[in-house]
Amino acid sequence: MPFSTPLITPSEYHHATTTATTPQSDPNSHLPRIIPIAAYLPSLHASFSAAHLPNTRFLPLHKTYSSTSPYPCTLPTLSHFCSIMTALAIRPTDTLVIYDAVSIGTYHAPRVAFMCQFFGHRGDVHVLNNLRGYVGEGFPVSGYEMGGKEGEEYILPASGVDYARVVEFEEVRDIILQRQRQRQKQKERDTDGDGSGSGAGAGDAAGDAAGKVCIIDARIPGRFSGTESEADPSLRAGHMPGAVNVPLARVLDPVSGAILSVGELRGVLAAVGILVRDYILTCNSGVTAAALDLVLRLVGAKGRRRIYDGSWMEWTRRVGEGEGLIVHA
């Protein structure tokens, strides 16, 4: 294993890919290779052409989205994912290092890493922190090359898909409604002078379980609070009841766009009181929620972490007007 953590520094990457023991230069080797993947929007292809990690596979992000979901940026099917990896000449045992464009800093790479892990890629998957730092430190880059001709078919078993890492709309809705019912019951007990919780039943147990789940939203503060309109004015702004706002920018260095140190990340999360919980991670369309998943992994959070793939683009379209499931800060 060339890297010990899911997030690697430019110097760690450079060292691992320039040692004599790596099989990068031998096309017939079946040892695990280190394959860099540029997770770029198609509009940034010129940036990729100008400078990227040597031997990079260019992954146009729009090709990774579901072709059937009505919501943007959701996960594709397993067969769709395997076809993407086949086209990039990636093997299931390859060590993958995923990165964003210099101009982006950190945004899409954690989502692509999450997707590879979700579908059961057998090799290690890492995020480079980040290309801007790599270039700034003077490590070698390449000019235009697409990298990798289509090779052997990339195949993963359906049994390897880790469905436990995502959560669907219906469960998120049920968790929030259970919380609301539990709070209402507690208010009624307090009003009656009985705050002891006597007479608690199965419904109370479900509410207690729901109360132990922390929903973290990575959207920008204005969208979260509802003070800033959505890009599509037909969509409602605001957030899920009980959600905590940790915008992506809060876990990134403002200059380099790199993910903060573990100590700094713990400070960000401790400030909002969410270090010891189970987690549902959400954002606008499921992309930056994956950065929160990576951050929680880096700080050693013990609770279960799940991404709500449909995120706000699904939530704002599906919840009813009178349900009280969209609130404003």
From TrEMBL:
The keyword Repeat applies. It comes from the Eukaryota. Residues 16-28 have a biased composition (Polar residues). SUPFAM superfamilies: Rhodanese/Cell cycle control phosphatase (SSF52821). Residues 48-143, 209-324 form the Rhodanese domain. InterPro entries: Rhodanese-like_dom (IPR001763), Rhodanese-like_dom_sf (IPR036873), TST/MPST-like (IPR045078). One of its GO terms (molecular function) is thiosulfate-cyanide sulfurtransferase activity. GO terms for cellular component: mitochondrion. Residues 1-29, 179-207 are annotated as: Disordered. SMART domains: RHOD (SM00450). It holds the Pfam family Rhodanese. The keyword Repeat applies. Residues 194-204 have a biased composition (Gly residues). PROSITE patterns: RHODANESE_3. Keywords: Repeat, Transferase. This is Rhodanese-like protein. It comes from Aspergillus heteromorphus CBS 117.55.
